[in-house]
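Example with several molecule types.
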Amino acid sequence: MSDLDVSQVLAWLETAAQMLRDSFQEEREISQKTGNLDLVTDMDRRIEQFLVSNIREFYPGDRILGEEGTGDQVEEMSGRVWILDPIDGTMNFIKQQENFAIMVAVVEDGAGKCGFIYDCMRERLIWGGPDMGLYYNGQPLQPPQDQELKDSLVAINWQMFADNVSNVQALAWGSCGVRIQGCAGTEFIHLLLGKQSVYVSKLAPWDYAAGRILCEAAGLRCSTIEGAPLAWLESIRGVFATPRAYESAIRLLNMQ
Amino acid sequence: MSDLDVSQVLAWLETAAQMLRDSFQEEREISQKTGNLDLVTDMDRRIEQFLVSNIREFYPGDRILGEEGTGDQVEEMSGRVWILDPIDGTMNFIKQQENFAIMVAVVEDGAGKCGFIYDCMRERLIWGGPDMGLYYNGQPLQPPQDQELKDSLVAINWQMFADNVSNVQALAWGSCGVRIQGCAGTEFIHLLLGKQSVYVSKLAPWDYAAGRILCEAAGLRCSTIEGAPLAWLESIRGVFATPRAYESAIRLLNMQ
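Resulting structure tokens for the full complex:
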């Protein structure tokens, strides 16, 4: 297993970002996955294929879990595994032409090594991991302040918020307010930049793998809503938060 | 009453925007207005005073309604009235240092003449009115497509969404999803750029005056949740939407 060349991954991300920016000049093919709120475009597949082909060429022994299924069937986490979300926030990509992200996570024998989240329309790129620190647009990123829930904004998946799943509305009322971007990647960026203290959402592995690695490297807490440790291959209802806000969030989300 | 010099107003907005950007280098004075979710800073007051003093100098016969109360007591809309929100989205200004807006509306004898909304951190400035068309960062702005509710994103005030005021959750489920920025100004920008089809919120006069003028000039529909025409001096629960999405929204919001 060769060492990870971060600068090479960053170059792939820049190329992918330019493909996405250029794509707004063309008509898109859009189709439904699980329903009318779960869309996929030809660009989701093109970006994933671009990343997969590069990883296959330079890291032939690695395995790849990609949202669009062009990687491998990954059922356990031995060795090095790449987890890819080529366009996180596809609905925003289609409807807003912004507020989406490319996300890449690298996991070795079940330990998060490096995460990359790139909001390429706003040119906000955060990457890093436990052994390398955090970087924001090429500069070292200081971990966010340990804000309290009551003094900060929170992000909550809108469907969970409407249905008050696990009491999430109590979390909202205990905060300075709710903001919803509809993209896990940009919500993680806001957490890492200290713009909000909590993010609660239902997420597939590619939605949270990079964000989890970055949050843990920044000293933030990550778990399921029930407080259980995160796996890598399961869809979850997750909480990502500053340590202080995490304590409040877990208490409120698990009140009987 | 002298003619309105739009380029002069744009120059004031640029100066105010620079004051706001520079303000992040300093400590802020923050105090509560009606409660812990309704904050005001020294910058809200400084920006309003800057705008008020310029309007007083160049348009001495005009009256001014400002959020921070440094203008006039305006109880009816005769003559020319300026409606000012020096920082719309003060909570975001404090917590995110972005996603806020400066808003200015000019109303003559109760008719909206010109609105300005400036998201100065992202450098998105929209201005215009019924007799002058719409401009986005200096370029003419085409009105947004007449999107259907079911094919588009919507923005809903998070407190109304939590409490399902006027059935707003049905609006959400009838759409492609909810996005919440917590700033009326940036929600109006998203409407005007076609990134969402509906905005529902509870708003004070300075929160909606500029947005209403711009939306009406763009062919969008604006009313109270009950479908009544908007006044200028009342706090409202308002709906702002593309014509097609407006029909769906009013029906859903008024279902028994």
